[in-house]
Amino acid sequence: MNPEMILQILISLLVGSALTVAFFKVIENKRKAKRQEEAGEFLASARRQSETERSEMLVAAKEAALEAKAESEEELAASRKSQLQGEQKLDRRDVQLQQLEDSLRKQQRGLESSQTRLATQLKGLAEQREDLARTLKEQTSILEQASGMSREQAGEKLMDAMTRELEHERGSALLKHKKLLDEVVQAQGREILLTAIQRYASAHTSESTTSTVDVPTDDMKGRIIGREGRNIRAFEKATGVDVIIDDTPGVVIVSGFDPVRREVARQALTKLIADGRIHPSKIEEVVEETGKRIEEFMLQKGREAADEVNIPGLDNRILGMLGRLHFRTSYSQNVLRHSVEVAFVSGLVAEMLGMDGDLARRCGLLHDIGKAADHELEGGHPKIGADLLRRHGECPEVVHAALGHHDEIVTEHPYTMLVATGDACSASRPGARRESLERYVKRMEELESIAARFEGVRQAFAISAGRELRVIVSSDLTTDEQAATICQKIAKAFEAELTYPGEIKVTVLRESRFVETAK
């Protein structure tokens, strides 16, 4: 290849490179111009948008300013109105104060004139008092000279005469009012007790210490006795009662002092006779089932009695003991019905006297609760009942009512007196305790005749249906110590010679009698 050709090639390459550079530069200039054009359009659009937003913001600002101006004008108008009302109130108050000030001035002028008149009147009264004092002194001197006594002596004599006259009038008035008060109290007390008794008097059933069980045939008696008497021994051992089988046809007698055991035995024996299978194991099974059923029955009876007199919250042990009284009698009177009746009477009397009727009914219902356990514990039923109620958290009024309803202790609560009253009403009302007139009279005579045997006894009176004896001894033949001995001997004689339920209270009075004759 020659140098010319090489030179042409080089020139061609240089020219192509220059053209290529020129081409790219043109293209770049066009792109730059396009970008500048787009940037200008974007800036113009941004300016237009900013102008639009600026215009909107200006409009919104003007609207907000107008609203704020309207609100401020409303607030200003309300403030001006309130200020105007306040000024009107102040004006009225100023007028009232001015009127009050004028009234006070008038009252002050009237008070000053009244004080002037009062001072004048006081001065006149002082002068009258001095005149009266001088006159009284002169008259006193004249009276002392006429009577021959000093002023003090005359005053003492006059006071003595007035004192004697007042004492006489006071005694007469006291006797008169005491008589009227006694009549009113007795009438009201009689009315209250009669109302309570008539409203709550209920029927009573009579129970004895024996129960009879019917047997279908005499062969059944032999089956009850069993071979060599093993059945009857097992039955008596399981129930704690005596079974009497004699020649009386169709009847077996169950005897026992505990009424609950007697009822368990009666029902168990009736069930055994109806079943026909009588042997020691069956006897124990039936007696146990019957005992549980009787316990449930007594609990139910206690709940029914508590619901009847509206006494909630009693312990189940107390309710069971209360239901046990359903099988207990006193002078042929059912003790549970007697307790319910005492509760009603005590509650009604308490409400009439303005006391707590619910508490009085609670005391009345539980006052004889000790009779449910007096076969098992030592002591009288008041002490047993009080201990039982105290252990089960009863209040002091209820415990004291059970302990003192027979007047054996000093009465500390008024509810005890209410229960004692209800107890006496329930026990002594006609029909409550069934007893023939002959038997009643005979028992009264026995009590009085036993007491009359002792030396020094002048009179003896049986009261409270034979539950209390009042004995009057001569003060000439006995001393206080001998009277106490006579009281103890009479009580011991009753225990040795008489048979009676419950207790008999003996009260010995040593009487001194003085008689004078006016001639």
Topology:
Blueprint: H1 3-147, H2 151-200, E1 210-214, H3 218-225, H4 230-239, E2 242-244, E3 251-255, H5 259-275, H6 280-308, H7 316-324, E4 329-330, E5 333-334, H8 335-352, H9 357-366, H10 381-391, H11 396-404, H12 414-428, H13 437-452, E6 457-463, E7 468-474, H14 480-497, E8 505-511
Parallel strand pairs: 7-8
Antiparallel strand pairs: 1-3, 2-3, 4-5, 6-7
Walkthrough of the structure:
The longest helix has 145 residues, at 3-147. The chain has helices at residues 3-147, 151-200, 218-225, 230-239, 259-275, 280-308, 316-324, 335-352, 357-366, 381-391, 396-404, 414-428, 437-452, 480-497, and strands spanning 210-214, 242-244, 251-255, 329-330, 333-334, 457-463, 468-474, 505-511. Strands 1-3-2 form a three-stranded antiparallel beta sheet, covered by helices on one side. Strands 6-7-8 form a three-stranded mixed beta sheet, covered by helices on one side. It has a two-stranded antiparallel ribbon with strand order 4-5. It is flat. Among the domains are: 149-200; 210-428, no CATH class; 437-511, Cation efflux protein, cytoplasmic domain (Alpha-Beta Plaits). Strand 6 (457-463) and strand 7 form a beta hairpin. 70% of the residues lie in helices and 7% in strands. The protein is mainly α.
Shape: flat
Task: Give the tally of β-strands.
Answer: 8
How many helical stretches?
14
Q: How can the largest sheet be summarized? A: 3 strands, antiparallel
User: What series of H and E elements makes up the topology?
Assistant: HHEHHEEHHHEEHHHHHHEEHE
On the 0-100 scale, what is the average pLDDT? 80
Regions with pLDDT < 50 over 5+ consecutive residues? none
End-to-end C-alpha gap? 205 Å
Overall structural class, as computed from helix and strand content, comes to: mainly alpha
Strand residue content: 5-15%
Query: What is the alpha-carbon Rg in Å?
Result: 57 Å
Main sheet strand line-up: 1-3-2
How much helical structure, as a percent, in the residues?
over 70%
